[in-house]
Amino acid sequence: MKLANKAAVVTGAGAGIGQAVALLFASEGAHVFALDIDEAGLKETEAKAPYGAKLSVMVVDVTKEETMRDALEAAAAQAGRLDILVNSAGIRVAGTVEETREDDWDRAIAINLRSVFLGCKYAVPLMKRHGGGVIINVASVAGMVGVKNRAAYSASKAGVIGLTKAMAVDHAADGIRVNCICPGPDDGPWLEEALEGSSGRNQALRPAAVQRVGRLGTLQEIAHAALYLAQDESASVHGTTLVIDGGYTAQ
Ligand SMILES: NC(=O)c1ccc[n+]([C@@H]2O[C@H](COP(=O)([O-])OP(=O)(O)OC[C@H]3O[C@@H](n4cnc5c(N)ncnc54)[C@H](O)[C@@H]3O)[C@@H](O)[C@H]2O)c1
Q: What is the spatial order of strands in the sheet that 133-138 belongs to?
């Protein structure tokens, strides 16, 4: 058990990457607090949890400051500590700057970036009580390189990478390691939705999305990267962006 006696909060744990991380961390012995706005998704996560796993679900809107603070404090109170925070909740917003409506821009920044700020803001003091912890932010290759029709999304993810580095500098002395993961497109519903679009125009991106290793990544591969960052074996990995994209950004 790689995470025995650790307490972990995972946002966006009702689906996709967050769910895969929550289940893997629980199977490695962590007490996992799975946060999501989608109650049905959380029920699915609960149902998939391995027998005997410690997994508590909380319906939380990650963009709401008080709700996030209360959820993190409740998790730490229940487990007696907070060791790990994985910020995975996120949404896709498609469009160039010309096409992106102001409210879609605000939604992308709120769910993809503000939520990470809020999670970190309230996790840091809880982790400091026990001499430190690990924060893993799920960004995207879209925060590193240009991806077509993803203006707001790319901006939000570049923000997550910047926040990760700033926090790595600020909180090293607190014993808090802060890293981010940059997945490329995975084989989940995101890619199909992105490629189909309303007009089908994004189909031209399909060959570029297929990664250089000849297949798309899997949720399990991303979850295992998060597990590596959460473990003491990665103790000197700090402020980095761990890219899991099958070589998508290599060229
Ligand atoms: N899947 C990919 O191809 C891919 C690639 C790069 C980056 N990412 C990033 O990984 C993260 C997870 O993506 P995913 O593929 O698992 O997506 P997903 O849609 O499968 O899961 C996202 C989860 O976030 C939750 N969520 C959305 N808004 C919320 C809110 N306001 N409060 C609480 N929960 C909320 C959703 O309910 C959902 O369960 C995102 O940040 C995404 O940008 C995904």
A: 54-59, 31-36, 7-11, 84-87, 133-138, 176-183, 241-244
- Fold classification of 7-185+219-243 (topology level): Rossmann fold (3.40.50)
Q: Is 122 annotated in the active site?
A: no
CB 211 less than 6 A from any atom of ligand 1: no
The pLDDT tens digits for 108-160 are 999 999 999 999 999 999 999 999 999 999 999 999 999 889 999 999 999 99
Pick the catalytic residue: 122, 153, 228, 248? 153
CA of 107 to the centre of ligand 1 (A): 13
Cα angle for residues 164, 227, 240 (degrees, 5° grid) = 25
Average pLDDT, the chain: 92
Q: What is the pLDDT of residues 67-107, one digit of tens each?
A: 999 999 999 999 999 999 999 999 999 999 999 999 999 99
**Ligand 1 centre from 91 Cα, in Å?**
5
The domain limits of the chain are 7-185+219-243
Residues in the chain: 251
Q: Is the CB of 217 under 6 A from ligand 1?
A: no
Query: What is the per-residue pLDDT for 185?
Result: 76
pLDDT, position 200: 53
User: Ligand 1: does its nearest atom lie under 6 Å from the Cβ of 93?
Assistant: no
Closest residue by Cα to atom 42, ligand 1, is 90
Specify the residue with its C-alpha closest to ligand 1, atom 18. Answer: 16
Please tell me the pTM assigned to this model: 0.94
- Give residues with Cβ within 8 angstroms of 25, minimum separation 6: 3, 6, 8, 10, 32, 84, 86, 226, 227, 230
